[in-house]
Amino acid sequence: MPESFFTEIRIPQQKAYDEIVFPQVLSLNPSGNNLIQDVSDLKEAIKAQKPWLESLLHVSGALLLRGFPIGTASDFNDVVEAFGFEELPYVGGAAPRTNVVGRVFTANESPPDQKIPFHHEMAQVPKFPSKLFFFCEVEPGKGGETPIVLSHIVYDRMKEKYPEFVEQLEEHGLIYTRVLGEEDDPTSPIGRGWRSTFLTKDKSVAEERAVKLGMKLEWLEDGGVKTIMGPIPAIKVDKSRQRKIWFNSMVAAYTGWEDKRNDPLKAVTFGDGKPLPGNIIHDCLRTLEEESVAIPWQKGDVMVLDNWAVLHARRPFDPPRRVLASLCK
Question: Any idea what the Cα angle at residue 20 is, between residues 18 and 22, rounded to 5°?
Answer without folding.
Answer: 130
